[in-house]
Structure prediction request, 883 residues.
Amino acid sequence: MVDVKKKAAELLSSEAVKVIIGYTEGTGGKPRAAFIQNVADVEKLIFNSQCVMNLAVYLTKAEIKKLGKPAIVAPVNVLRAIIQLAFEVQIQESDIVVLGITPDEKLVEFQSFAAIESYLEDFKMELDAKEKETLAKISGMSLEERWAYWTEELSECFKCYACRAACPMCYCHKCAVEQNKPQWIPVAAHQLGNMEWHIMRAMHLAGRCVNCDACHNACPKGINLNFLTKLMLADAQEQLGYTGPTLKEGNLLSTYNPNDQENFIK
Amino acid sequence: MEEKNIYKPYLMRVEKITLEAPGVRTFRLKFENEEEANAFEFKAGQFGEYSVIGEGESTFCIASSPTRKGYIECTYREAGRVTSALAKCEEGDVVGFRGPYGNTFPIDEWKGKSLLFIAGGIALPPMRCVIWNALDTRENFKDVTILYGAKNVGDLVYKNELADWEARPDVKLITTVDPGGQTPDWKGEVGFVPAVLEKAAPSSENTVAIVCGPPIMIKFTLPVLEKLGFTEDTIYTTLENRMKCGFGKCGRCNCGPVYVCKDGPVFSYKQLKALPDEY
Amino acid sequence: MTIEKYLVKKTSLPVLFDKIKASGKVVKAPKKKSHTTDFADVASFSEVTDDYIVTTQSAKSVAFPRVEKLFNYVKSKDGVQITDYALNAIPEVVMWGVRPCDAAGFDPLNAIFTWDINDVIFTTKLKKTTIIGFSCQNADENCFCTSVGGNPGSTQGSDILFTKLSSGDYLAEVISEKGKAIQALAPELFEAAPSEDKEQNLAKVDVKFTKEIIKEKVDKYFESDVWKEQAQRCIGCGTCAFVCPTCACFDIQDENHGKNGHRIRTWDSCCFSQFTLHTSGHNPRPTQDRRWRQRIMHKFSYMPDRINVYGCVGCGRCSRACPVDMNIAEHLTNISKM
Prediction:
């Protein structure tokens, strides 16, 4: 953490950046996002295994952009989001300074997004054994069982949209769920409204989701909604060898490749 | 307290539709239920929640005068889900209406005074109720001046009524369109409302000014009025914050502690100045 | 009525619960679900948990559910037929296990729904609800009821309040006629009042500020930068409003199923960026700091000014549920020191 803080202080004092987006201590010792604007406050930065919130969500927020050029403390989940956001032309190399951080709090400096991309090659976006086990359980259900499972799981949702707000990829100013001409998705948090919202959310994240679990961690009801996107990720891995976002081949499911095995488009 | 469902609308039959300008229509609505029609009362300045059943509700003022009994009128521009559905309605269709809500223009206090109406674009409807109210009780007021401007000639609403007002000897009507918005046969003024107001320079003596229009027009009109000698309690306007319920519960329309739906929509400039910048 | 005190034995609670169930009333109680503990329909006492500081969501759903059908309609060639809300079909509900903060939340909620115009759907539901409160033996770092006029053993809003004594038995305070009616279902379970002091059996919640101080400060610092500083990490979701016992903002929508449908009222939140957005694109509260200010000002300034009640009961639900740790007690404490 020492070198991260040192770098952050340098960046602020040289005015290379105006704000450091990082983690600091919050309620009950748990981490929360911090927006450090003074060198003296750099000491408040922390990093530990509980720092799972994806800070990249702030990179596209108008209120944060107004603070000036940021440097962002970026563990792997944040780095992945940065690459995906870069592919989607939401951020540019000159807009931010990325302070990569390893699990043992070491600073990793990047001169370019391409450097982040090659760094990430050592961190293939793969599902772990526990995730695979849960997915296998859900996939193994009969159609009726699976419908019952998701109906029950999503019945808890009251549409606070914390999942959307916490997701670094949900940066649309007006979300599809707010479109009302026509009204694609019922506003109400009833069975149909919830089911349609979560299916739509997952579909919009197909091939874009960086599997950071921000949506699940944000959910006040602890709904396993992240398994909707994980299921797609598993398919993408198995069928297309997808291992995470890159600068050249971003939106997996909306990108056509002549080598694709399906021939319906030819 | 009343024991009825406050969200249940009156059912109203669309009696007449007038296309005022591109995308702008006036509906004349009559109560389906005779008893409801007889019990219904409102005053100039109040608003309601209009609905196409199945599409939702939208908030507009009652654009007709309370002196005209047996119906209400609203004028709206086609924009969102509900107004687009309203635009598809035909004469004879049934729509919903809840209201009247909100406060009123203090027209009784204005007796014996001159009235200056200043409106821009689609903001003439909230003023039309009070214009007709005043004209239908014309003996109560001294001079009546109406200054109405729009982007272009096509955007002027209530064209028939503008002609009526033009023809009346007891009304001074000034119409204007923004530079470039005039047609070859346009006989009115060309220029923005504040500039035209300054040129016309109506007297502020014993006069109340009622201003309604887009925020930018209001912003530049108020200083001109002050220059002409109007004071902050002789200038009135109506606000249009987003609303859902219309009666102070849904939490949307407040500017600080002031609820546009309950304390407004009519405000004097003095009251407006005291509001935080949330409208 | 004056509060009557009784002893109810630990072993009597399930019996009372069963008697209430048997009386035909709907009983909702805190139930552990797969991820959270919340009020739910419970089949038997064994499903009821007492292992919670507060439930994730408040008890407000009983009178202000996340979706309320306001009326039904049928459209035809000749017009529209409206079937009004069936007020007489609203069932008697007993909310079991409500914390004192939550019970106190019905007051501000009721003040909003009866402000000049009576929202008869809400008030009928509330009238038909009996609140059986349980005092708090435990609190966490998010609790601040004592800073906004409540306390862990407050009887406000409850019809009966149970307080667990050192023996494991309960002090029962019967507070209202509705409480008496519950007692009348099993009068034999309500024994002579215990001598043990109630206070020593309550959680300790430190006073951090007073609601009056907050009002004074927020009225003074409306234009301060404090809102921007505090709202920086807010991501603009509606979690705080949806778990709050006093947040009442709502949306009205129509839902069609062919020619039939209903108009519904759904929860909404002042923290959503679209909440106040005009059709023209103009937004009176265009940034998150304005929306955060509205949330705090509404609860601590506008509500006391306009309807004579504060809109916060100090339950701390918003802080616990917030995905970005917007700790309201911390923010309010800082405001109180300005």
The beta strands of chain A are 19-25, 31-36, 45-46, 70-74, 97-101, 107-109. Chain A touches chain B at residues 180-181, 183 (CB under 8 Å).
